[in-house]
Amino acid sequence: FTLLVFIIPQSVLNRNPGDSSHRQTVHIVNFALRCFIYSCSMGHWAMLHVKNSIRDIRNKAFVKFGRCFIPEYLTQWQGWSSLLLTLFLVVMLILEPILYCLGDPNGDIFNDECPEAEMFLFPYSVASTAAMLMYFMLLIDLSV
Fold it and tell me: Fewer CB atoms near the end CB (10 Å): N or C, the chain?
């Protein structure tokens, strides 16, 4: 479900904005779905990592990784891949073009195309692609 909610605003809704009223509706739906991803998905993963880290710290369950000690749950591929997903979602939130366009007096509400956001579009798309790959990677675990 979350992967579908992630894909819709990133890919599907950005294809054909159409007329002005349709474009405004697309911007609002896009913003709502991105808010869901940032609050529910990123929030879920962040809380999961905090919980697992606290558990491993209390149990003194660490593994040496180079010169550092990391929590033991990060030695499993689901642990480190979900941590990467969380970090990519945080980067996406920081680079979110809609946030940079909120103060644009010439644009529609929740528009993601404005001069202020132009420099963030490519890094945002890279982070979005990486996050989507992490979602698919974690989905593989459910299908096996």
Answer: C
What single-letter DSSP state applies at residue 79? H
CA distances from 105 to 9, 63, 87, 101, 110 (A): 23, 52, 32, 9, 12
- In 3D, which of 29, 31, 12 has the Cα closest to residue 132? 12
Question: Phi first, then psi: what are they for 71, rounded to 5°?
Answer: -60, 145
pTM reported for the whole predicted model: 0.85
Spell out the alpha helix ranges (H) of the chain.
Answer: 2-7, 20-36, 42-58, 77-95, 97-101, 121-143
β-pair type (68-71, 62-65): antiparallel
Distance of alpha carbon 91 from alpha carbon 28, whole angstroms:
22
Tens of pLDDT, residue by residue over 44-79, are 999 999 999 999 999 999 999 889 999 999 999 999
